[in-house]
Fold these 2 entries.
Entry 1:
Amino acid sequence: MTQIDFYVHVSNKLQTLCTLAAKALARDVRMMVLTPDAETTEQVDRLLWSQPSIGFLPHCRAHHRLAPLTPIIVDHLADPVVHEQVLVNLCPDSPAAFSRFERLIEIVSLDEADRNLARARFRFYRDRGYEIRTHDLAGSAWA
């Protein structure tokens, strides 16, 4: 069953994403980042080219010819699923294929609208019997 983790009270969702992506890469874990739209995909793409400040996190889109070899996939298209280890959902709704992944990560900001959408996703997963772990990043240096 998919392990689900909610990272809550996050002041900067994309910075937290970069931190999680760097940790996954260091552990040789493959990650797919599902964004809500092409604009966010581009924004994450640019950020991963500059994070960390002395390097970059190798990534590409799901349809790129090197996707099977690339540890981080960033796309607003849910198909094809290239890696099935970790899915980071930046979308307002629960992704349809989340159960194909070993782990699902939800990053929840301080914004009340974002928190309300996350609560709905939390209930969706809980009502289907998934165990959910919550990581409160309030006051954390990398939140």
Entry 2:
Amino acid sequence: MIKIWAYGDSFVAGDQDDPKRIDAIPEIMEYNRYNFSFAAHLAKNLGIDIINRAISGCSNFVQLDKLFKDAASIAQDDIVIFGISSPLRDRFQIPFNYPEFVKDTRGPTLGDRDLFSKKNIHCVPTVDMFYLLSSIEKIEKLYNIKIIKINAFHNFMEDCPLEETHKFQFANYLGLNKPNNTLLDVLIDNWLGTKKLATKDHNKWTPPEEYKIYFTRKSHPSVEGHKKIAIWMYERLKNDYNYPI
């Protein structure tokens, strides 16, 4: 039987901003994945099983690792959803949190030293996204599966240097190369719309008053928000990708 596989950060894990970061407690996060997340609502509505690997605060490469390990177990007809987190959580963090890795007194390890210079550091997310999406594409071809990509809250293409944009031609990416293509946009009825939302940090973004029912206090999707995303995702899978659902 068809199954849903879900990967991503808090937006896929169903994080509900419980006090003292209780979502980081494994059993709470597990409950959220299978009860609150839009992927869980989608699976319940379809009457199918789900495996949700998402982790609150997770980077893209961590989820790629999980996808890589799972790939051989994913059936060709399974629904695979990869929620793209901000690439600022990936190698961009190295010089700020782990400066010893970019010292010029040691050999370069986690990246080209020039790329991590103050002049070029903002190119790092673009490079990492190209690596990420190329790896996902290879997994799709190797196992003959389809992986639906969707931006959680940060549209990385808005920060991509103009001369690099032509490299981002990847299939099965909802709204790629278009503005307003995040799950935040879905929740405020602005998918590929005209409202300027652009944010790299959902914690610092406040939804319009009339849409606050769909958000937690830290602007994660609320339970009602996840239900709304699940309905929207169902329409995309059925009408845009012809899944037999």
